[in-house]
Amino acid sequence: MEAYALHMAMAALVGASFVAVSAYYMHRKTLNQLLEFAKSVEKDRENGVTDDEEDEKNVLEDEKRFNNKKYVEKRKNRRKGGGLIGYYRRVSNSLPDVTKINGGGDEKLVNGGRLDMIDDRIPPGLSRLRKLPEAHEFKMFKVRLKYELSGQPLGKVNSTKSVRPASPKSPVASASAFESVEGSDDEDLTDNSKLNSSYLLANGDAGAESIFQTVPNHMNAVVEQNPIPAASMIRSHSVSGDLHGVQPDPIAADILRKEPEHESFMRLKITPNEVPSPDEVEVYQVLQQCLEMRERYLFREEVAPWEKEVITDPSTPKPNPNPFSYSPEGKTDHHFQMEDGVVHVYANKDSTEELFPVADATTFFTDLHRVLKIIAAGNVRTLCHHRLNLLEQKFNLHLMLNADREFLAQKSAPHRDFYNVRKVDTHVHHSACMNQKHLLRFIKSKLRKEPDEVVIFRDGTYLTLREVFESLDLTGYDLNVDLLDVHADKSTFHRFDKFNLKYNPCGQSRLREIFLKQDNLIQGRFLGELTKQVFSDLGASKYQMAEYRISIYGRKQSEWDQLASWIVNNDLYSENVVWLIQLPRLYNIYKEMGIVKSFQNMLDNIFLPLFEVTVDPDSHPQLHVFLKQVVGLDLVDDESKPERRPTKHMPTPEEWTNVFNPAFSYYIYYCYANLYTLNKVLRESKGMTTIKFRPHCGEAGDIDHLAATFITCHNIAHGINLRKSPVLQYLYYLAQVGLAMSPLSNNSLFLDYHRNPFPTFFLRGLNVSLSTDDPLQIHLTKEPLVEEYSIAASVWKLSACDLCEIARNSVYQSGFSHALKSHWIGKSYYLRGPDGNDIHKTNVPHIRVEFRDTIWREEMQQVYIGRAKIPEEVEK
Ligand SMILES: *[C@@H]1O[C@H](CO)[C@@H](O)[C@H](O)[C@H]1NC(C)=O
Ligand SMILES: *[C@@H]1O[C@H](CO)[C@@H](O)[C@H](O)[C@H]1NC(C)=O
Ligand SMILES: *[C@@H]1O[C@H](CO)[C@@H](O)[C@H](O)[C@H]1NC(C)=O
Ligand SMILES: [Zn+2]
């Protein structure tokens, strides 16, 4: 009995290996690699089922069939569904509509008869592939694949004994069958029954008979000794009724009853089993240096939020009833002053010892140049390119093997689906956060209800709203979305200047001034009301959150107070919203206008108020309460403007008095350094919320932007230029730097949608999320974030599981509080890997999370030559 089950399991194992071979082959397309690989498919000697020669022969047979172009195409279509009829489904064992599968073929497969199944796919007359002698060029990625099917809960799998009769093709793996044998292990039982799909289609007796006809010789001997129990097991299960037609599917029902944590899946272990060559080791060492450099620079909190605040109450966090109440908090003695563009903080006025000095500009630019040199080196590029491709193929292989298991796991998670998992719009500009229809309706209603409100001062006179429209020769009735003309179209492609003009409704800067500015004659009342409406829409959708980016320009120090008082006076607060501050890089314009004298003025205007309010909250009470909801600092503007790459010795900001805009990385350094000091020395030690550095980067322009942000930033918006640098892309992968990508937005500005690297990044496992950027210009519906997901899903054929994974990433990347995150994606979300996943909240199967985590750990070990120390928790 036991032996029989084992044999069946082994048969299934062989089938699975075969699938792996084929998937692998599809991608590498080289015969000798396949051979290399096939030889190394791990044999389980203990069980003694797989036979070397047999295997090799089979693989050769398989090659024939792989050569079939049609087949390859079918495979490409796989995600469209239905592409890979027989073959793919056979692995999938848990597909609900098994009745479509031809019974005969499956029975053969059940017995390990791969060839029979394959035969009908080899086109007649196809020549045998040449067999190449040896696979030398593939030494680096000599791959060992090993499949484990296990019915044990994830994370506790003992791989050495994991080959159990739980395989998909095992004909005896029915619940009732095992009950008597193993008895107690409930989870295993349900798993087994779930895996039994060929049973359904074979429908009982017929299946049972043919099984024994085709059992390979060496198995026959054993099997024949006890055919009766096996057959009766099968029958006993089939009593449950007619499995064809519209009857409720007992297996599907089983799956739905099952706890999702107990998923089993095909684990794929691809490990290089050759020591990296000295050259490769050298490359890995420079990559390590880059990663360590990032660790040195990046601001991280000393104490993680989950250590500070342990959440025991599982209920929904209560909304803050009084988000803007100010309670005096003590002034501290800290003394600060600007020195060479960076604020230095001292414990008190008389102290001469600077607290937590940050790396100075020369050090930063020297380090930046080192990174730039590394990412340009040919051998580093080649290796990273290889690794990235391998990552991509691993994910494809995973999908092939486990896609419908993931799907079933999702089905079995009660209540959750894509619509009610939390998703954060990680990158959206506040001045464009409403959609155009909304803006239009708002303008019309204001024109109807408040025509006599004095709204603007232009050309020496005060104008009411009615007069403004008269001066534009417009009535409320005339207004329509087309006339509003805020939508980005093909005229804006590669034209950032035109794109920015689109922020002006009807092409009129005065309408923008009235409706989309917060520092106008009506003190931004209209924009405040509009924002409240957006907030209430967001609140109504419940599962969508946003991080709005709002501008500080650095023209005067009072901007902060103005902004804070606008927020507080308009009571702009929502549980679903946090703020980021965006700094437009417009020094050259202010300089031309004579608003600032040097770059230093701009830095003063931006950072000094922040230090003041942090040292003494009483100095700007409104700003103090507003900053509690500010989670990040952003830098924006057109990156494609030409600029000179900074050298190691740059003029200090005070010396920067010419009319040219400083380079991107110059802005990055000074913002980074001041923010680091602010967080490290003051905000963290005083128990205040910290502000992360999350700039726009890599949308266009030079690659050194991405290098600078890699060293200094928590996460970035866009990052599409990573496609141009395999080394940086690989580094972003290893460090899991968050990327908030907006493929639709970049469609109108810089990069056609279908060329956007988002799907590639996603496959490779970069930490990506989807965001809207500018709903006003880009999106058409009331739920721009869902629109963004929906278009990505249909263009790139993302599955529900992919979408939920992206949504989960977006929560991680966002700056919401620890309490909210743990309510949204699970109370141990800060643990790495499947332990940190709660499928009941995220609808992301453990299978997916474990896969990503395993592959990432392997990659880190590869880079650190087996010496990576990976913490249990995600980064702070
Ligand atoms: C895994 O199984 C092996 C052999 O079956 C056993 O020696 C080992 O202790 C097991 N490990 C765990 C963690 O269960
Ligand atoms: C499931 O059990 C049935 C019983 O007939 C058997 O026919 C079928 O082959 C089994 N399938 C699997 C995948 O174990
Ligand atoms: C993705 O990035 C965010 C920060 O942007 C980070 O908190 C999160 O842990 C990252 N995800 C992973 C899987 O490392
Ligand atoms: Zn943006």
Number of DSSP-assigned strands = 15
| Alpha-carbon Rg, integer | 31 Å
CATH architecture of the domain at 289-314 and 328-428 and 554-559 and 598-618 and 630-864: Alpha-Beta Barrel
* CATH topology description of the domain at 289-314 and 328-428 and 554-559 and 598-618 and 630-864: TIM Barrel
The CATH class designation of the domain at 289-314 and 328-428 and 554-559 and 598-618 and 630-864 is Alpha Beta
CATH superfamily of the domain at 289-314 and 328-428 and 554-559 and 598-618 and 630-864: Metal-dependent hydrolases
Helix content: 40-55%
Mean pLDDT: 74
Bound molecules: 2-acetamido-2-deoxy-beta-D-glucopyranose, zinc ion
- The end-to-end span amounts to 52 Å
Q: How would the global form be characterised?
A: globular
Unreliable parts: 37-124, 127-248, 490-499
| Beta-strand percentage range | 5-15%
Task: Tell me the structural class.
Answer: alpha/beta
Explain this structure to me?
It is a single chain. The protein is of the alpha/beta class and 876 residues long. The protein has a domain at 289-314 and 328-428 and 554-559 and 598-618 and 630-864: Metal-dependent hydrolases (TIM Barrel). The protein contains 39 helices and 15 strands. The chain has a five-stranded parallel beta sheet with strand order 5-8-9-10-11, sandwiched between helices. The chain has a four-stranded parallel beta sheet with strand order 12-13-14-15. A hairpin with a 2-residue loop joins strand 3 (335-339) and strand 4. The model is unreliable at 37-124, 127-248 and 490-499 (pLDDT under 50). The site of one 2-acetamido-2-deoxy-beta-D-glucopyranose has 3 residues, from loops.
